[in-house]
Predict the 3D structure of the following.
Amino acid sequence: MSRTPTRSALRAATVAAVALGTLAVPATALAEHPDHLVDFAADTGDGCLMGSTGGTLTRPARHEPGRLVVEVTGTVTDGSPFCEFVRDDEMYAVASFAAYTGDRLVDQAAAYADNGTEPVAATLVAADDGPVERVVVQVCRYLVGSGPATAPGTCGEPRTYRP
């Protein structure tokens, strides 16, 4: 006599296996809300706007609960359409992005361009310190061969955004 399981027995075994699998390996909970988008822009503040940045700060819709990050996308430009007579001026532009939780700096990123436009793509994370509450964006220009740690640059006003 063959001992072939009946359909109802197979169905019951499948339901039990799925239930045990679900209990044994819980899915990571994700918080969801609409993407929150904030446009940003900053420049060097000089007459020609020789350095500039612009784009979007995004607080993604899906994230781990309590871990709100900010994604930075856009461009940084060195050079100006307003002062085309200035070509290669031996300087480059740096767009900096500083993330804060309260008054505490929790993450930072930078993007560089020299005589052109480059993409900006970064994710700012507050780790275990809470959510990123504000992002300060600033554009500075430095002499080629130097940098923020070695030579003073020309910097525009910092701009604060709350994504």
The two ends are 70 Å apart (CA to CA).
